[in-house]
Amino acid sequence: MHPVLEKVTEEIIERSRxxxxxxxxxxxxxxxxxxxxxxxxxxxxxxxxAACAAGEKADLAGSEKPxxxxxxxxxDMLSAHEPFKDAPALIKQAIKEAGGVAQFxxxxxxxxxxxxQGQPGMELSMFSRDVIAMATAVSLSHNMFDxxxxxxxxxxxxxxxxxxxxxxxxxxxxFVPAGPMxxxxxxxxxxxxxxxxxxxxxxRKELLESxxxxxxxxxxxxxxxxxxxxxMMVEIMGxxxxxxxxxxxxxxxRDELTKAAARQVLKxxxxxxxxxxxxxxxxEKAIVNAIIGLLAxxxxxxxxxHLIAIARAAGIIINWDDFDKLSRIIPLLTRIYPNGQxxxxxxxxxxxxxxxxxxxxxxxxxxxxxxxVADERGMQSYMQEPRLIxxxxxxxxxxxxxxxxxxxxxxxxxxxxxxxxxVMHGNLGRGVSKISAVAEEHxxxxxxxxxxxxxxxxxxxxxxxxxxxxxxxxxxxxxxxxNGMPELHKLTPPLGVLQDKGFKVxxxxxxxxxxxxxxxxxxxxxxxxxxxxxxxxxxxDGDMIYLNTQTGEINVxxxxxxxxxxxPAVNTATNHHYGMGRELFGAFRRGASSSETGASxxxxxx
Length: 606
Known about the structure:
The protein is an alpha/beta fold and 606 residues long. The protein has helices at residues 3-15, 17-30, 42-49, 54-61, 87-97, 113-116, 125-140, 157-167, 187-198, 204-214, 226-236, 252-267, 278-281, 284-297, 303-313, 320-327, 344-349, 352-362, 455-463, 480-483, 492-500, 560-565, 586-591; strands spanning 67-72, 101-107, 147-151, 173-176, 384-389, 392-397, 421-426, 429-434, 444-452, 471-475, 505-509, 522-527, 544-548, 553-556. The longest helix is centred in the N-terminal third of the chain and has 16 residues, at 125-140.
């Protein structure tokens, strides 16, 4: 085991000792040896199985068969979640055949960041994670269940499901993916058309045709944004069946994996001999594995927020310094768009999660001694991949080496020697930067600030031709307290156009960028946010800013006394609290914690 990995893990364990112990004490108090429904009064139980078939009523009235909750984020608008429509029937039949009962416990909301990107609805996105966590808790609150299956894929949805699952940490859990859509229009071509549209060289018709060829069928979008980072993260923590993250939907193998996940959770209930509650599975080592997977694959910066909230739900305290320290030792092992031209289907074909995990394990860069949902408890089980042989699901050893070294590489020959996620720090506060997709010549920018309080104002300035110069865009009042912290992905094409023209450009914000953000250097999630009096609110047009994503420096080059004496600006964008449901989230905005503490409202004691 790499000494830095050991040291960071020990620091997290020590930092979390009090909160983790308190969490586990609550979980252990909730564990029941028999079915949880046995605690219900007869009237409660009768309500719980009133709609069941006669045979299921008899099973649930008895005290032998475990009852498994299905919590799903299905809707037929999200391409990634549409395949879940058939999953409950598959799961119920598989569990019935294996000697249990399953009930659809509840659905959770699932919004698509791809649809709301740049729209008012995007300002609900970050808070939807906490809503999903709460909806998961409501789904399980009937106390009818002895285990749970969680069906989710995208952005805030998997983190929300996992936070909710950890609240019910006394129950065993298996997460069930849906899989990516087949590859469509190559990512390089999609980006080319987007930039042409930003320049006014093609119209909406051509842009829509390009986008429709890229996002073209059921399944997860194939670029490596937050959704696919979720799938990687859940598997490397041991909550997916080995090798199941990136199997396409509506294939026989996908269906068999869904049924296998259903059978698996039955093995781990308290009624059996191999009790595996999720609270005991998601420990400090599992959280560190998730960070390592994020760094090794160049995953979404959104997880520098989500993982902190997930860890907190398990009583574990992590911070951005943990990400930064691990980034220095974890090499970049994948090239998946936006950190390359390949998509997740190419990654899967090159060896996928099995080869990635094997490479990290054999080089002492991953914790192997986890309790997982595989039959064998350690991460060694994840060095396998699923196969259908004569219609029967089986697991075989993964390839011994990557099958396409342009997409998936080795520790000996990495794409970069560090994971490419750095903590940014200086007189503008603390933030994060993802540089795995940023060319080296663009990783350091010194340029005057151009300040905006609304991303639409920057778009308008670009269209007027006012940004044809070196500059660092400062997008203020984009933190969770200001407007819910929407992603600012629609700024990527115009900034990319200006960069391609030879201008030195960068972005600094207390908001987020999309998991698809790529070649433009940035410092994002800046803390404290402007609504909390953060120093970004003191930056003025023309102030020189020095951004060095290699060393993590982010400073405004203004005399210290003069800068400190400035009065922070007042938010000029006043139209972000009403419409499209935003008026319902005022309490969420007021109560949100900082980005570095998970941008969450869930823990009142904090």
